[in-house]
Each structure stands twice: as structure tokens, then as C-alpha cells.
Amino acid sequence: MKQMSTAARSTTVNASAGSLGVACFNSAASMLMAHEKRPSTLKAKMLLRSAAAIMTLGLCAGAMTMSTPAYAGTILTVNTIADSGGSGTLGSLRYALDTIASNCSSGPLLNPFTINFNIPSAGPHTISPMEPLPDIACNNTIINGYSQPGATANTSGLNVFSATPPPGNNANIQIILDGTNAGSTRGLTITGNNVIVKGLAIRSFAQEGIFITGNDAIIQGNYIGTDPGGDDR
């Protein structure tokens, strides 16, 4: 199983839920066992204790339900521009995508997945795949180029092609996906649903920069077919 820098994107399942369940069961069981030691003439007290035990179990069941959050996920952090092909170098974009593909439906990591970037030194940083990258087939995957230190989304409210005077778009893109060495392939292929890709420059691929067959993808704030300055590549 792959190993990579991971972190919970949200709260994780509360590990104390099992302990809580044992404590609740023991408490209720103690109440019920106490009835066996009482004479049969104390039926009223026994019924009262039984009701209390049932209430304890009910309250604990509710507490255990609340201790398990409705939403949790896994963050994979890209910290190198390296690309060796195959399953990828530890910490690379290829490795992150391959990790998601390996864990999407039945792996130990939690869905959904987010790929963040934290590549050392000043950018922009160029990732040059040596062969096609793994498809993004896992629903709700997020690739967040804006997570790279120094990257910022456009805040001008202007489109780079319609602003006067140019450039108008003040986005600072720090992650470049360059297909010069990737062969006759696409940049990113999205087959899963509700996938989000944002804050990347994707250039110099022989085919589409992003190819989508899944539903409801969000492609936000990317330069596709250009470098971060908007020049064709």
C-alpha cells in the first residue's frame, strides 16, 4: 500500500466511540444485574431500574452516532516536481494520483481526496510528466494549485482577455503542468464526478489540457494551453 504525506481534510472518526459504547453497555448491564439480586417483592423498583438501563443505552447510542462525523477526507501533498513514470516518485503529482486510484473504492484512506502542493523554493514550479498521468476516476477529488505557497486566485473580477488595460487578471499561478515530454497524450483526464481542478497552468500537451467524461466537474482559475503569463505554449 502506498505511503504519502496525508492529513485529515476534516474531522476524522472519533476513536473514543468504541470506548463510549463499552462504558454505556457496562453501566446498563450493572443496573439490570442489580435486579437479579432483589427479592421478587420489589418488582416496582426493578421496573424502574430497567427503564433507567434502557434509557442509558438509548442515550449512549445517540452519543455514539454523534461522535462519528458525516464528512472526512484525505489530503495528499505534492512536494516535488519529479516524475519518473510508472507509479511515480514519493511526493510527486503522479504518486498522489496513483495513490488515489489505488484507494478510491476500497483502500484504507478516506474519501474524498484533495491534492495540495507545497514544493520548496520560489516558483513557479514546472511538473513535466514523462508519460500519461493516471486518470482522475475518484468522485469528489480536488486538485488545488492555489495551495502552493505564493499562489493566489484572481481577485480583480476581470477576464484576462477583456480587461482594459491588460492584463486585468491578478492571479498568481505557481504550479505548471508541462506536457513537452509526455508523448501524445492529454494533461489531466477526468472520468469521476464532481472533480475540481483549480489554480494550475497546463501547457504543451499534444492533446487536450483537460479532458472530461465525468459529470459536474469544476475547472476554476486555470491557464490551459498557456503559461501563467497567458502566452501560448
Question: Any overview of this molecule?
Answer:
The protein is of the alpha/beta class. It folds into two domains: 17-67; 71-233, no CATH class. Helix content is 24%, strand content 17%. It has three helices and twelve strands; from the N terminus they run βααβαββββββββββ. The chain has helices spanning 17-36, 43-67, 93-103; strands at residues 6-8, 74-78, 113-117, 125-127, 142-144, 175-178, 188-190, 196-198, 201-203, 210-212, 218-220, 223-224. The strands form three sheets. Strands 1-2-3-5-8-11 form a six-stranded mixed beta sheet, with helices on one face. It has a four-stranded parallel beta sheet with strand order 4-6-9-12, with no helix packed on it. A two-stranded parallel sheet has the order 7-10. α1 (17-36) packs antiparallel against α2. The protein is globular and about 45 Å long. Residues 1-71 have low confidence and may be disordered.
Give the overall silhouette. Answer: globular
Strand content: 15-25%
What is the structural class?
alpha/beta
Mean pLDDT: 73
Order of helices and strands: EHHEHEEEEEEEEEE
The stretches of 5 or more residues where confidence is low (pLDDT under 50) are: 1-71
What is the CA–CA distance across the termini? Answer: 37 Å
Oligomeric nature of the chains? single chain
Number of strands: 12
